[in-house]
Design a protein that fits this description.
There is one protein chain. This protein is an alpha/beta fold. Helices cover 39% and strands 15% of the residues. It has one domain (3-186): Rossmann fold (3-Layer(aba) Sandwich). It is built from seven helices and six strands. A six-stranded parallel beta sheet has the order 3-2-1-4-5-6, with helices on both faces. Helix 1 packs across helix 7 (172-186) and helix 4 crosses helix 6.
């Protein structure tokens, strides 16, 4: 599979920080990749609260957030188990759940595939393909931490939404771009979202 035809799944759940998932999707589409977007019911609620979107018109929300696309975007319903990403035979190059709520983390950690988000994540683990979870929660109790360990032991990666400050962020976008850039680094996807340590340019 060539670089131009990479295929990724992006799950956006009900944790605070929907903008992380939106920005990641924007970057992947800008690079010309195919993106399968999965948004939970609670994720849509965060769109309303944090992004001031009218979630009663989901198609308008999507067209507003991603008006221009170099890549191809597919948006799936949570019970759309006929979607390609629900099968291990589909060539999916990886999945990111960003932000990942503790509820979704728990379901993934225990292989409970009640929705297409968890099913796609389960496929990534069983097929030994990249799965990245971006939790956005604080503080964390023992069960949260144990679930992260279970996912890590099963082959997934935990990339918490923890922005750095050594690049001297000036805006909220700078902080968002740092987290999304770290996720893209973990996906081996090139980007220029933040200035790296030691890069004076």
């Amino acid at each position: 599979m060539t670089e131009e035809t990479k295929i990724y799944s992006v799950g956006i759940t009900g944790a605070s920080g929907a903008i992380y998932g939106v920005r990641l999707t924007e970057e992947l589409l800008e690079l010309g990749y195919t993106v399968h977007l999965l948004i939970t019911g609670a994720g849509w609620q965060v769109f309303r609260e944090e992004l001031n979107m009218d979630i009663n018109q989901p198609e308008l929300c999507i067209s507003t957030l991603f008006p221009e696309r170099n890549g191809t975007l597919y948006v799936h319903g949570l019970q759309e188990f006929t979607a390609p990403v629900a099968s291990g035979s589909y060539r999916n190059d990886g999945m990111v759940v960003i932000p990942c709520s503790m509820g979704t983390l728990s379901k993934i950690a225990h292989s409970h595939s009640g929705s297409l988000v968890e099913r796609t994540a389960d496929v990534m683990l069983k097929e030994k393909r990249p799965l990245i979870l971006v939790p956005r929660e604080t503080p964390l109790h023992r069960i949260h931490l144990e679930n992260m360990l279970r996912v890590s032991d099963a082959g997934g990666s935990i990339v918490p939404a923890m922005p750095g400050y050594y690049h001297h962020p000036q805006t909220m976008d700078d902080l968002v771009n740092f987290v999304v850039g770290k996720v893209l680094d973990h996906m081996n996807v090139p980007h220029q979202l933040f200035t790296r340590w030691g890069d004076q340019s």
